[in-house]
Amino acid sequence: MLSRRAALVLLATGCLAPAPVAAQRDKPVHLGILSMTSGLDSVPLRTLKQRLAALGYVEGRTLTLDFLGGDGRVDQLPDLAARLVARRPAIILAFGGVEPVFAVRNATSTTPIVFTIATDPVADGLVASLARPGGNVTGVSSLNAELDAKRLELIKEVLPAVKRVAVLVNATDRTAAVAWKRAETAARMLGLQLEDIEVRTPVEIDAAIGRARTSAEAALLLGTPFFYPHLQRVGALAVKHRLPLIAPWRELPAAGGLMSYGTNVREMFHRAADMADRILKGARPADMPVEQPTTFELVINAKAAEALGVKLHPALLTRADTVLR
To answer: Closest by alpha carbon to 221, among 189, 190, 253, 191?
Structure first.
């Protein structure tokens, strides 16, 4: 089972920023992490640790990680960010959506911040430009939230007769409204009718998947980060309800969902660790362009398609980066 990893490209060099951080080898490097969720054993956090270890930062020896998670609650983030900044980490990594990044940026204008987000950081107001972020903030953007139109095209390609698609939306995400409008525009061009299903908390996911199956012929997880920590559960529910489902993340078809199209999350967090390493060695965040993907991966679960009675065209399987059988 082969996969072509999403390639990320560095854009250009930038402008001046707060003073660089010099790594102190005589004591462990102190890194802060602010996440929307409290997943201490999440794929992003494990990936981050593995990459940092490969770069020589071993937790408990040369690295101290200070993790605070918002448990999915946006209202908790400002206080958590203030607490994290007060502990004076060398760098703060923020992930799980734009809200943790805004919370940390509002709490400090000097501590370097490295983000991993699914949206456009310029449109979101996080940086001045991709090539010249400015200030103390830079990072990696997957652009996953920009690709919902392509995911709807894939649904139409796999299910040509489909008319109604349920779109699962986390209403608390400030980027969801823009993502929904983009999806609506694409749906009109494809002759699809979208069913908006709001999910505000993880507890509501089960009922939302059931509702999606009764109100539509297929479903899309909107490309915002809320659903990522719950993909194992979402995939199992898609199997249970026999729901053709597409998501931005390959973990969805791995958990039984039909397919995914987007950036490899593990690669994103590898790049975030690399950026943190460069800052620790003296680079300035404002001189470090925001990194974005140039390719995206299509993952198809052929076994799920067979169970759903979906016939996959050989050309689509040829285009796929990974076919799970």
So the answer is: 253
Lay out the sheet containing 164-169: strands in order across.
193-198, 164-169, 218-221, 245-247, 259-262, 297-301, 322-324
The burial class, CB within 10 Å (0-12 / 13-18 / 19+), for 214 is exposed
The CATH number of the structural domain formed by 145-262+297-324 is: 3.40.50.2300
Q: Give me the DSSP letters along 44-71.
A: HHHHHHHHHHHTT--BTTTEEEEEEE-T
- Superfamily designation of domain 8-143+264-293: Response regulator (3.40.50.2300)
Which amino acid does the sequence have at 97? G
Separation between Cα atoms, residue 18 and residue 288, nearest integer Å: 12
- pLDDT, tens only, 66-110: 999 988 788 899 999 999 999 999 999 999 889 999 999 999 999
Taking CA atoms, 229 is separated from 36, 92, 110, 272, in Å, by 10, 21, 30, 18
Q: Which residue has the tokens 């609650």?
A: 73
Task: Residue 312: name the closest of 157, 149, 163, 164 by CA.
Answer: 157
CB atoms within 10 A of CB 255: 21
Q: Please tell me the distance from the alpha carbon of residue 270 to that of residue 290, in angstroms, as a whole number.
A: 14
Give per-residue pLDDT as tens, 167-225: 999 877 778 888 888 899 999 999 999 999 999 888 999 999 999 999 999 999 998 78
